[in-house]
Amino acid sequence: MTTTFLRRTLIAAAATGGAAVLILTAAAGASAHVGVKPDKTDANSYALLTFGIPHGCEESGTTKVAITLPAELNDAQPTVNPNWSVERVTEQLAEPKKLADGTSITKRTSQIVYMAKSPLAHDLRDALVLSVKLPDAAGSTLYFPTLQTCETGQTDWSEIAKDGQDPHSLKAPAPSITITGPASADGHGAAASAAHTETPATEQAAAVTDSGADARSWAGLATGLGGLALGGVAFARSGSKRRQESAT
User: Where is this region: Disordered (predicted)?
Assistant: First the structure.
């Protein structure tokens, strides 16, 4: 009976350890790409876009991140990050662009460039946040090609899946979001329901964490699971010892 109890405990511990390995493997794969996670995707609304910056050049630290805005956006307001300095790059439009309020613009912000005050180490992550006004274009996907420059080398996250192509097959996909219908008067609507229906673009965005805190959470979970496994083995050993002492 003691042998059977110990065998079951070891099997449970092995299964727990295997689950932890699978969780960490999935987390590592998800964090391999630069991605964007919006706090909302409602058409014609203001949203915060969080770009997760992981390692992108093997073991070389990141020195600059240049995020190109899609043509559908006219501007973006960077959130202050003490680890980076930031600047807007503007472009002159070929012809004036009329806005919904009736005014016109002759230039737009085409790129947001972050320069690291000290290189972001390859084993660390950071989050860069932009505030943008989303266009009134429900159903459309916005792509944000991002050039990650490192002390040695660079990675151009600008690939866009072609029709019929699996976006997960891309080596350096461009961060993207899909615009949903405007929210209803009660604050819910297409955006809320869309949270339960992932498209390749939003699935990719959801797979990328936005800060090192997520990585620390995964590590803590794995440590906790490992502790449970070791505790199970110790409990089995103490139970066996007690039964042997009772028998004598």
Answer: 161-209
